[in-house]
């Protein structure tokens, strides 16, 4: 099994048991002419989504923190699908970085149609009182502020027909006793989806979310000790963790016209766990 990492959000290049991100089917042009931005697009769910979107005709901009090798690999994979990609390094918790990044995307591609805010971090603590103020602030800055900042910077460039997709989590619906601050951020994102969807509906911009369950990504060995990594995802009804390419189609569905009558909704690729939305 993959060795445990000690920095977040983790490096896919260091994993022995690699996540599966290759799309399963030929493309059908569902995103032809579109430009998509994906935060946390260098690895895991972000990489799988970037590759699937490229296969469907989109051009990609991915934002990443410091995983340069992973980001370069993702760009090559997108190019291998016959599309174009750029990678921009920085911290989504920094408003100035988000503003500048959106400017680079529009300058490079001339438009922006799909915004996927996916970057996240998580830090387990056995006791709620052990969650430090620093940890609390950093988790909210990445997971919530980062989504707000990217969306705020993107909105002036989005036209009717554009889509915003927020990554939340199954933990928003059933909690997680080792990740209370993380689960709290994911609950906030569900409310962000619902409020923003209502606000932007008159402008023809749809806002939805995806709430993955346990998915095998670099964030897992960067979060948990070896014994928890070994058993990760086995408590789901399907008895295993999901792969990134099992989540990416949810983003594709919400990004394309197949979901044209959906806004303010959340999809649940979570291994069969019932949730109350």
Please tell me about this protein's structure.
The chain has 277 residues and is α/β, with parallel strands linked by helices. The protein is 36% helix and 12% strand. It is built from 8 helices and 7 strands; from the N terminus they run βαβαβαβαβααβααβ. The protein has helices at residues 44-55, 68-80, 95-109, 133-154, 171-174, 180-200, 226-230, 248-255; strands spanning 35-39, 59-64, 85-89, 114-117, 163-167, 206-210, 266-267. It has a 7-stranded parallel beta sheet with strand order 3-2-1-4-5-6-7, sandwiched between helices. Helix 4 links the parallel strand 4 and strand 5. Helix 1 packs across helix 8. The longest helix has 22 residues, at 133-154. The model is unreliable at 1-5 (pLDDT under 50).
Extract low-pLDDT stretches. Answer: 1-5
Proportion of residues in extended strands:
5-15%
**Count of helical segments?**
8
How would a textbook summarize the main sheet?
7 strands, parallel
Query: Secondary-structure element sequence?
Result: EHEHEHEHEHHEHHE
- Structural class, by secondary structure, is alpha/beta
The mean pLDDT is 93
Number of strands: 7
What is the share of helical residues?
A: 25-40%
Terminal CA distance reads 34 Å
Shape: globular
What gyration radius follows from the Cα positions, in whole Å?
Answer: 17 Å
Task: Please give the order of strands in the largest beta sheet.
Answer: 3-2-1-4-5-6-7
């Amino acid at each position: 099994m993959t060795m445990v990492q000690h920095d977040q959000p983790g490096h896919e290049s260091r994993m022995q048991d690699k996540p599966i991100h290759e799309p399963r089917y030929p493309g059908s042009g569902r995103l032809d002419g579109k430009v998509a931005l994906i935060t946390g697009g260098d690895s895991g769910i972000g990489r799988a989504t970037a590759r699937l979107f490229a296969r469907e005709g989109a051009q990609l901009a991915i934002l990443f923190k410091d995983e340069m090798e992973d980001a370069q690999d993702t760009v090559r994979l997108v190019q291998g699908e016959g599309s174009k990609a750029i990678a921009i390094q920085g911290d989504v918790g920094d408003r100035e970085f988000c503003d500048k990044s959106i400017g680079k995307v529009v300058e490079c591609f001339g438009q922006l149609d799909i915004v996927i805010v996916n970057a996240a971090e998580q830090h387990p603590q056995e006791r709620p009182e052990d969650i430090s103020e620093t940890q609390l602030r950093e988790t909210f800055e990445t997971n919530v502020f980062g989504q707000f900042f990217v969306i705020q910077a993107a909105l002036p460039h989005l036209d009717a027909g554009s889509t915003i997709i927020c990554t939340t989590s199954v933990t928003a619906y059933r909690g997680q006793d080792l990740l209370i601050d993380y689960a709290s951020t994911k609950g906030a994102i569900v409310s962000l989806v619902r409020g923003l969807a209502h606000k932007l509906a008159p402008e023809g911009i749809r806002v939805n979310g995806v709430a993955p369950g346990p998915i095998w990504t670099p964030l897992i060995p960067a979060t948990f000790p070896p014994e928890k990594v070994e058993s990760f995802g086995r408590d789901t009804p399907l008895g295993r963790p999901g792969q990134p390419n099992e989540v990416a189609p949810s983003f594709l569905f919400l990004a394309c016209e197949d979901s044209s009558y959906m806004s303010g909704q959340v999809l649940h690729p979570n291994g069969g766990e019932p949730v109350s939305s």
